[in-house]
Amino acid sequence: MTQQTLGEFEELVLLMVAALHDEAYGVSILENLEVRQQKKLNISAIHVALKRLEDKGFVRSRFGGITEDRGGRRKKFYAITALGKKMLDHQYELRTSLYHEIPKISFS
Fold it and tell me: How large is the average pLDDT for residues 74-80?
């Protein structure tokens, strides 16, 4: 990959967008990451990461329909782009290759 970077938190958010497919929006990403990480996260951090990912071209967004239970507001859904998938593939290959370089010794 050239020039584009992906921070650790951005990577987690991007992975969750990809995993949730068409149902990825701020709160669903937050709740799923909180369960997996077993810690509380801030919704603002999720929104900032999503904005950065969209600016980098790793995700695209669309608005859902207006609902009364949201006071007439629409959900903003996110989907991973081909560039975002390439970045995740690159990160996976990098981390896996580094992991395989760990010597096969007993850590105690």
Answer: 95
Contact indicator for 90, 63 with CB cutoff of 8 Å: no
84, 11 contact by CB (below 8 A): no
Residue 101, token pair as written in the block: 């370089």
Q: How far is CA 85 from CA 15, 62, 63, 79, 89, in A?
A: 9, 18, 22, 10, 6
Decide: helix, strand or coil at residue 76.
Answer: strand
CB 66 within 8 A of CB 73: yes
| pLDDT at position 52 | 97
Per-position DSSP letters for 77-108, written without gaps between them: EEEE-HHHHHHHHHHHHHHHHHHTTS-S----
Q: Which parts of 40-81 fold into alpha helices (H)?
A: 43-56
What is the pTM (predicted TM-score) of this model?
0.86
Query: DSSP character for 22?
Result: G
Report the distance separating Cα 67 and Cα 86, nearest Å. Answer: 34
